[in-house]
Structures are given as structure tokens and as C-alpha cells.
Design a protein that fits this description.
Blueprint lengths: L6 E5 L3 H12 L15 E3 L5 E5 L5 H6 L5 E5 H7 L4 E6 L5 E8 L4 H6 L4 E5 L2 H11 L3 E5 L6 H5 L4 E6 L3 H5 L2 E10 L1 E6 H6 L1 H15 L4
Parallel strand pairs: 1-3, 1-4, 7-8, 7-9
Antiparallel strand pairs: 2-3, 4-11, 5-11, 6-9, 6-10
Helix pairs in contact: 1-9
The protein binds phosphoribosyl ATP and magnesium ion.
């Protein structure tokens, strides 16, 4: 249970866990187990009152919103899609940086499709971000929700374009796709349950301050 005496931090395995570790270390907190080798979902730390729970990246905001965790680290992409109700967002951690972009097949003339007012079929996991972006541009789109392997959609004819995360661009290049629009820059945010922030104010404030210093971000 997440009790008043414990501070529970929700993280997802992979880049968010890996890039949060140095921030925890800066706050004097060592995670005592390695999620890649352990099957445990609740990880103890060097501070008896602090524990880490491992959840799917898209479930982090949900855990924090409903108090299954007091705090969590989540990509801005995930946060926008989830919505920020019940979540306090005190800090940009500047980790897991990437961007949300529009990409198409190298042989698809995106600029003239947009100029001619064609209706575009767009596949994405980021339906809210894509809807808002194309609406602001005045481009009519049919959005097709996917949960993974977005890059495949233009290659199979499922869609004209995708809206996806890009970091190095290697995945797009490997699939003969080109980035045609950059929608927004993404980094991971600290999110805090609003009730926890009131009830566990002192330890949460200490953690925010240590994270802010380590992340080099103004609070
Ligand atoms: O992978 P899984 O289905 O379990 O969950 P997830 O994809 O939601 O989690 P995870 O751990 O992959 O991503 C968590 C968060 O990391 C995202 O919400 C982003 O905020 C952030 N992040 C930063 C990224 C990337 N960089 C990134 N490059 N998330 C995903 N990618 C993927 C991207 O989707 C594409 O398939 O990597 C590929 C592109 O990388 P490049 O370097 O080839 O351009
Ligand atoms: Mg992933």
C-alpha cells in the first residue's frame, strides 16, 4: 500500500528509469534492484520511506492521478495524451528528450497535398497532439489510432503520414520515411498527485528541489 509514511515514485522501465536514476542519486536515493534482471514491480531504495513502482509508460499519469503513486516521471507526449487532471507538474526534468514530428514516405509530396487541401490519412499513437496540430493548420485529416510500429503505416498504404516521436531519426531513415514537420519538443516531466503534495509536502518538496538542481532546470 501507498501509506502516509511512504513516498511512492512511478517509473517506466527503459529510458525513463535509466535517465531518472542519476536524478535520484543526486537526491541521495539509490534504487536497490535492477529492473532488467529482477521481476519485482516494487523496488526498495536506500531510503526506507521511498520506493519505486514500475508501470507501463502510458500508465504513469494514471497511477499518479489516482494516488497509486505519489509522484511519477512521464514524457510530455504521454502527459498531453492522458490529460493533466489531478496532476501537479512542478518540474521539467530535461531527460528522455525527443520531438513529435510528421513523417511521410520519401516519394509522397506532403507539401502539395497540404497546399491542395487534400484529406490526409494520418496514423498515430498521439491522437490528441495530431488532432490539435492539423486543426490549427486547417488540414483535414482522418486519424488512425495505432499502439506501435507507426513507421509501417505509410509503407503498407494504411496511411499517408504518421505522427510519431523522433530522436536520432535513424528509425525513419531505416524505413525510407522523411520528417516533414516538427510539431513539438518533448522531455520528461515530474508529476505529483495533488493530495499527496499537500499531505506529504516536506519530503516531496525536498525531492523536487534535489531533482531541480540535478536537472539544471529552474523551479
Ligand atoms: O516501449 P513501450 O511500448 O513499452 O512504451 P513506450 O514507448 O510508451 O515507452 P518508452 O520507454 O519507449 O518511451 C517513454 C518515453 O520516452 C516517451 O513517452 C518519450 O517521452 C521518451 N522518448 C524519448 C522516446 C524516444 N526518445 C524515442 N526515440 N520514446 C520513444 N522513442 C522511439 C520512437 O517512438 C521511435 O520508434 O524511438 C524511435 C525513434 O528513435 P530514433 O532515435 O530512431 O529517431
Ligand atoms: Mg517505446
Amino acid at each position: 500500500m501507498n501509506t502516509p509514511a511512504t513516498l511512492t515514485l512511478a517509473l517506466s522501465k527503459g529510458r525513463i528509469f535509466d535517465e531518472t536514476l542519476p536524478l535520484l542519486r543526486a537526491a541521495g536515493i539509490e534504487v536497490l534492484e535492477d529492473p532488467e534482471t529482477s521481476r519485482k514491480l516494487i523496488l526498495a531504495t536506500s531510503q526506507p520511506g521511498v520506493r519505486v513502482v514500475l508501470v507501463r509508460a502510458t500508465d504513469v499519469p494514471t497511477y499518479v492521478q489516482y494516488g497509486g503513486a505519489d509522484l511519477g516521471v512521464t514524457g510530455l507526449d504521454t502527459l498531453i495524451e492522458h490529460g493533466s487532471q489531478g496532476l501537479y507538474q512542478p518540474l521539467d526534468l530535461n531527460i528522455a528528450r525527443c520531438r513529435v514530428s510528421v513523417a511521410v514516405r520519401a516519394d509522397f509530396d506532403y507539401a502539395s497535398a497540404v497546399r491542395q487541401g487534400s484529406r490526409l490519412r494520418v496514423a498515430t499513437k498521439y491522437v490528441a497532439i495530431a488532432r490539435e496540430f492539423f486543426a490549427a493548420k486547417g488540414v483535414h485529416v482522418d486519424l488512425i489510432k495505432l499502439y506501435g510500429s507507426m513507421e509501417l503505416a505509410p509503407l503498407t498504404g494504411l496511411a499517408d503520414a504518421i505522427v510519431d516521436l523522433v530522436s536520432t531519426g535513424n528509425t525513419l531513415r531505416a524505413n525510407d520515411l522523411v520528417e516533414v514537420e516538427r510539431i513539438m519538443d518533448i522531455s520528461s516531466r515530474l508529476v505529483v498527485n495533488q493530495a499527496s503534495f499537500k499531505l506529504k509536502q516536506a519530503p516531496i518538496r525536498r525531492l523536487i528541489e534535489a531533482f531541480a538542481q540535478a536537472a539544471g532546470a529552474p523551479q
